[in-house]
Amino acid sequence: MPKKLTSANLMMHKTSMDLNLATLTQCAPESVQAQPVVELVLALGSNYQADKYLPLARQRLAALGEVRLSTAFQNPDFTATLEQPKPDYTNQCVHLALITPVSLQQLQQTFRTLEGDCHRCRQTKPNQVRQVTMDIDILMIKLADKENSLSEESISKSMSDWIAMADRYPFKAHEKAGVRELAD
To answer: Most buried of 23, 100, 146, 165 (most Cβ within 10 A)?
Structure first.
């Protein structure tokens, strides 16, 4: 079970995302790469100097739009074994309402650059424990409404609803807890 980090409660902003987890649509990220995204929910994770890199990531994300934070949780690395113990992760979900719509592809590149700015090293030697300074995963997106030229209604209501990234769903326990907290 994830352990809450109480110091993160001070940075939490409580507002509703209008999200119904029961009706969540799934979509492969590849199928919406060029679509303009207006809101998204991210999972941040760090198992190395989280107290340094999580605030940096949150600050950089705030430059893109309005940020709301879930509680931060400390979780064991699920790949750890008795023979190869690994450091715990600090995880937090972020709801980001973008100032300007951005394509999913551009967002993915932006987050990969941010991970690099946090000195994320993706290469490890065999049997080496990875020190992950910052991992940013897109859990869900909300696409910009597309207007139909034949009517004033949007082409599809589902285009404006939250879409879970199929490669991240079902969510891990700490992600589910963070998403639910943001949705309340």
So the answer is: 165
| Reported confidence tier of residue 152, pLDDT bands at 50, 70, 90 | very low
Tell me how far apart the alpha carbons of residues 92 and 109 are, in angstroms, rounded to a whole number: 20
pLDDT tens-digit profile of 5-50? 433 333 434 445 666 666 788 999 999 999 999 999 999 999 999 9
Length of the chain: 184
The C-alpha atoms of residue 57 and residue 43 are separated, in whole angstroms, by 11
Cβ count near 58 (within 10 Å): 15
> What is the pTM (predicted TM-score) of this model?
0.83
Who's near 30: CB < 8 A, 6+ residues apart?
A: none
Quickly tell me which residue has 């997106």 as its tokens.
141
β-strand pairing of 72-75 with 65-69: unpaired
CB atoms within 10 A of CB 168: 17
Map the chain to HEC letters. CCEEEHHHHHHCCCCCCCCCHHHCEEECHHHHCCCEEEEEEEEEEECCCHHHHHHHHHHHHHCCEEEEECCEEEECCCCCCCCCCCCCEEEEEEEEEEEEEEEHHHHHHHHHHHHHHCCCCCCCCCCCCCCCCCEEEEEEEEECCCECCCCCCECCHHHHCEEEECCCCCCCHHHHHHHHHHHC
